[in-house]
Amino acid sequence: MAEDLVLDTAIRDWVLIPLSVVMVLIGVLRYFVSKLMRSSSQSPDPKIIKEGQVIVRARNLRAAANFIPAKSFRARKAYFSNEENGLLFVPKGQASNPQAQMFSDPNMAMDMMKKNLSMIIPQTLTFAWVNFFFSGFVAAKIPFPLTQRFRSMLQNGIDLSTVDVSYVSSRSWYFLNLFGLRGLFSLILGEENAMDDTQKMMQMGGFGFDPTKSLGAEKDNLDIVQHDWALPKFEQRAEEVLRKRIAEH
Amino acid sequence: MGDYCNSNVARRKSWTARHRERERENEEEEEERRTTKMVSKTEEARVTMLENQVDNGGGGAWEYLCLVRKLKLRRSDKVLKHGLSILNDPSKRSSLGPEEWTLYEQVAIAAIDCQCIDVAKDCIKVLQKRFPDSKRVGKLEAIILEAKGSWAEAEKAYSSLLEDNPLDQVIHKRRATMEKAQGNLSGAVELLNKYLEIYMADQDAWRELAEIYVSLQMYKQAAFCYEELILSQPRNPLYHLAYADVLYTLGGLENLQAAKKYYASATDLTGGKNTRALFGICLCTHAIGQLVKGRNKEDKDSSELQSLAATALEKDYKLIAPTKLSSLTKTLRSLNLS
Known about the structure:
The complex is a heterodimer.
Chain A: H1 9-37, H2 46-63, H3 70-81, H4 98-104, H5 106-134, E1 138-141, H6 151-154, E2 167-169, H7 170-180, H8 182-189, H9 197-204, H10 211-223, H11 231-246
Antiparallel strand pairs in A: 1-2
Helix pairs in contact in A: 1-5, 1-7, 1-8, 2-10
Chain B: H1 8-26, H2 41-55, H3 61-71, H4 76-87, H5 90-94, H6 99-113, H7 117-130, H8 135-148, H9 151-164, H10 169-181, H11 185-198, H12 203-215, H13 219-232, H14 237-250, H15 253-269, H16 275-292, H17 305-320, H18 325-334
Helix pairs in contact in B: 2-3, 3-4, 4-6, 6-7, 6-8, 7-8, 8-9, 9-10, 10-11, 11-12, 12-13, 13-14, 14-15, 14-16, 15-16, 16-17, 17-18
């Protein structure tokens, strides 16, 4: 059966190559469009920056607590984790959830929408276009045999169970291009810019992490730190070091 | 990147991009920044090697400049010389591709640091032609104004840049240093405090603030800053030393004892090679002795640290500066340590 199928060269010229070229061009076009639509003044929220910095500082305090005198440590601990206005203390009700935050900030929602639109619109259009013009074509043949499991991947749109699996239908060729052109884009557009659809789809799942959670965790960690000033030990160590040095000659 | 299946990818990616940009921008600060970052031994060796090579007419100027930029070293004269030699050679310049503009920026800053304002202006002009609305170029222009000493204009330029991006770290720092350069230390303190309220994990700013506080004789505040530095880098002997200095200056039994401990830790961390720390131990012991004199001598500390420090000092002086040995012994004798 497989030997019988001979693909017309016209299919190569009028289906396979145009489809690939169009996919590449659309990818490039979409990159530029999304670049245009990206809101330029992407100023980060000072509160978020501050929270990140607070966490770094609290972590430093926790890690190196034994290097400062007890008084200084207590003062800092109180500064970070007191129940009134400590930096790490998050009032119960205020724990903002990112979903609500997104809706309260129209810019953020707008951004998401732009991103999604720039992804969904061309994708639906190209899919419709492929479906309309090229449905049912066997567009290519891969040069090695494959098991039946690949049928749904490679022969999307052809409902013949007798066709050998190594034949690729046009719609599947479209999908292969959609997900497989990332490497090419990173060559054309530079490493950073190659955001392919698969990645974008992953991002859609949800967004934002909750900084208040990490603040709370850091506060708990800080609360259980026992201060044990390390410096008295250093006096003995310094003595040893000096003794060794003096005895060198 | 592709392995992350969660939502943070976008955020993280944009964050890294922003971070990278900020890092690049931070290079602009080179002129005021001493190399607080630890430079690893191998990299240091490589820089010296490349520097020798480039100075003696060998190739590798571009690699040298890249390395200087990466390690945030302040070698303005060399950067200016070798960077200009690349920029003045059209074939070499064009072979850099887009990195050309980075080089222009680097050379501009080096030129400002060397007070070659004209060279810097030329570089910035080129950059301006290429990036007409860039904030980064705007920053360079403001730095030039600052270098010329036209404070009011520079201030105006910075504040207009801040309007667009109120959270720009570099500009906030530059404004603080500008106050300092004009001698308005309390203004610098105010700006730095405001900056640290948000960017409270910025070591360089803490360090700058500590030094300003010391020069304003506000030792308690300075001690706080040095504590902060010790927290962020607990193994850096320089911070221990500076903190001990401040504590010693504050005086009082408790502070003196703490100062002695920090001098001891600095000694330990430097392998006993820091002369200042050794002297510090001696002085602290003497001062503590003066304070507890007459009180009950129960808790007279029995350690031999001070005598060891004195011996180490004598040994160092014998080895390095034998002519000064007599004055050292005199000093030590006056401290009852010899």
